[in-house]
Amino acid sequence: MFSSFSAWSARRRAAGRLAAATLASGLVAAGALATAGPAVADETPQNQGGATATIGGLKTYGAAVIHDNGTDQQVSAGLFEMSVDNGGMLQTYCIDIHNPTQKDAKYQETPWSGTSLNGNADAGRIRWILQNSYPQVNDLASLAQKAGTSGLTEQDAAAGTQVAIWRYSDGADVDAVSPRAEKLADYLQKSARSLAEPRASLTLDPPAVSGHAGEKLGPVTVHTNASSVTVTPPADAVAEGVKIVDKRGKAITSAKNGSALYFDVPKDSADGSAALTVQASTTVPVGRAFASETRSQTQILAGSSESTVSATATATWAAKGAIPALSAEKNCAKGGVDITAANEGDKAFTFELMGIEHTIEAGKSQTVTIPLQEDQAYDFTIKGPDGFEKRFKGVLDCRTQGSAGGDATQILSEPSPATVGGTSTGDTDLAETGSSSVTPIIASVAIGLVVIGGAALLFVRQKKAPAQD
Q1: Tens of pLDDT along 189-208?
Q2: Where is the Bacterial phospholipase C C-terminal domain (predicted)?
Q3: Residues 50, 130: contact at Cβ < 8 Å?
């Protein structure tokens, strides 16, 4: 769905994003650690693992009409195609009708909790639609019969499925142009039942661990729908003798769902850190969400070829003192980013973030929620002595425009670019995503955001770190 966004709305959202980026400069945090810590890499995994893909464009689609405040706008509605990093193809539908798709945007498989599906009571109905319509159901005659129509084409099926999804994902007042597609949309909307969120194709839990040199650090548990995964040990730690082992201490190069992985760090190792990567080839479960850090419209998976999925976990070790492990995850329910800090050392770990000091006692784990504005870019770093550094960056994208409140979208016509594959029953428009003359808006919004930019951090969870095996 290249076109369901107006020039006015695109410029207005661009102003909001730029103003949020201005505020983000106030979120750069240099945490002063009260105790020495080991040096760690500044690249912290920003996702939960799974498939990473680049969006290509609409592949199979028809036309739909959005009714909004007395204005009707015809848009393209149907299936997108994405190419998966290191092999594979995905088919997706849009679940973010008023936001533009950015050309060649990178997408990451994402839990519903990190997208606009969080808190949407109808999210499970969308998954039902995906499993009971095109392309999962490719018997178009049978699908047409259930919808009470005939002669359903692939374009009709894609358009009708997308329209039904928009009614639940965005609460949109939208109809398919083709009577056959509209019949299908009505059938899917009325028949949909709530299903649970599908599990991720591949994740590692937790994504960061810590401990003393001479111990097995972990466990890091593999969660996947693949029959097996390959385990790549830390390349830069091989010379130091760091290995990836199972619970019994046996070095491993493959694992499966439920496997527990450990970093086996020699006792005489210098304080340091390492990362392991697991990778598999599998089909990504239908209904998984895909989000972009560039604020390109959120997608939901309708079909997957055999695709490459991966996940990374890091380990930090030291002989003594505080030994932190840090990870981040978007929390749309609380409107922010959760930073989890675990300390497996023998001294307290203290850091400062946004002017507030936090102390994690030895053997404890705490989660700090950083409150952010919708569409706000964030980039902050926790630093300390001995080269300790962790950087977290991204964009909080938790709402569709319809759920975000504020002004309604004014839908205008846009220039038509070349389409990508397939055939269409209507024109495809590309929403304007570039910069525009919105300086007065940016200035006023930025000033307002800076005023509220000192929002306090909240401790939302405190628990004792799990014991090591």
Answers
A1: 999 999 999 999 999 999 99
A2: 328-394
A3: no
